Amino acid sequence: MFKRIDHIEIISRDIEKTIGFYTGILGFKIKQRQKVGVPPLEEIVYIELNGSVIELMQVKNPASAPQNPWQSGYRMIALEVEDMDKAVNYLKTKGVEITWGPVTLGKSKRAEIKDPDGLSIELRQW
């Protein structure tokens, strides 16, 4: 009945900056972009990375994201990386701060970064 996660929605404070981060640094491609005239929604942009889709939303006067990472609810998205050391070094050259890790967890490695809106992104090497 249920097939897969279709997409994840992110409300951005600065959609151009967020698009630049996800496409210019993380390698996502713009799949679709359109203006929306249904207040408070102004624009949506679908970005894709190897079949995974994020819907970036621009709304009028977005509220700030909650600051407690251990509150109930969604916590973060995770991106699988081929080589953690290479990914971390690459991100540092792009000015992206590694906010946690990397650490080895059994046979995997894990680290965290933040997007321009302060949303956490897990990096995972299996």
Question: Can you give keywords for this protein?
Answer:
126 residues, alpha/beta, 2,3-Dihydroxybiphenyl 1,2-Dioxygenase, domain 1, 2 domains, 4-stranded mixed beta sheet, 2 helices
Which helices and strands occur, and which strands form pairs?
Layout: E1 8-12, H1 15-25, E2 29-38, E3 41-49, E4 52-59, E5 77-80, H2 84-93, E6 100-105, E7 108-114, E8 120-125
Structure description:
This protein is α/β, with parallel strands linked by helices and 126 residues long. The chain is 17% helix and 44% strand. The strands form two sheets. It has a four-stranded mixed β-sheet with strand order 1-4-3-2, covered by helices on one side. A four-stranded mixed β-sheet has the order 5-8-7-6, with helices on one face. β2 and β3 form a beta hairpin. The model has no long low-confidence stretch (mean pLDDT 94).
* Number of domain units: 2
State which percent range the strand residues make up.
35-45%
Contiguous helical run count: 2
CATH superfamily of the largest domain: 2,3-Dihydroxybiphenyl 1,2-Dioxygenase, domain 1
Kindly provide the radius of gyration, computed on alpha-carbon positions and rounded to a whole number of angstroms: 15 Å
Spatial order of strands in the largest sheet: 1-4-3-2
Order of helical and strand elements: EHEEEEHEEE
Largest sheet: 4 strands, mixed
The secondary-structure class comes to alpha/beta
Any idea of the CATH topology of the largest domain? 2,3-Dihydroxybiphenyl 1,2-Dioxygenase, domain 1
Show unreliable segments: none
Output mean pLDDT.
94
